[in-house]
Amino acid sequence: MTVIATDIPDLYILEPKVLGDSRGWFMESWSATIMQEIGFDYDFVQDNHSFSVGKGILRGIHFQQSPYSQAKLVRCTKGAVLDVAIDLRKNSPTYKKWAAVELTAENRWQLLIPRGFGHGFLTLTNDSEFLYKADNPYNAAADRSIIWNDPELAINWGIEEPSLSEKDISAPLLKDSDCNYV
After folding, report:
1. CATH number of the domain at 2-19+48-176, please?
2. What is the DSSP string of 135-164?
3. What does the pLDDT look like over 18-42, one tens digit per residue?
4. Which tens digits make up the pLDDT trace of 70-84?
């Protein structure tokens, strides 16, 4: 597995080793042993799988309040998404900085997102499937959102009018949220 650093410390792209021949391919998408060998020690407890029927569907920016925050390992298994992670740790030198990575079924890249980050993705194709592991279970009481087009964050999603859920339409600005990451 190749680890690719982003401009934000603790946020990494993981490129799995893919073995293939005329019959198809094989890859290890997760190995606790390999992760520990390269310095990542996550105890993932939940897998999530989402399907988006159309191009231009934006899901996020989501996070869970501490102590229920989640580290995530995300990947796209069908289609393509623009995956965005935002550092929401107030004491971090990269607070409010974001990174965007195109995850596709073809490149098989994964994004390893630590606790303390907001997360969202935009579908770039029809019929996109997105999987992620989380190291803390979903907690409805701790579930939070930030509006996708917050001018303070200035995320370049590459779209003016995405398809959004009611939850994401009514999400607050970061400055009005009760995000408690430090």
Report:
1. 2.60.120.10
2. SS---GGGEEE--TT-TTT----S-SS-B-
3. 999 999 999 888 888 888 888 888 9
4. 999 999 999 999 999
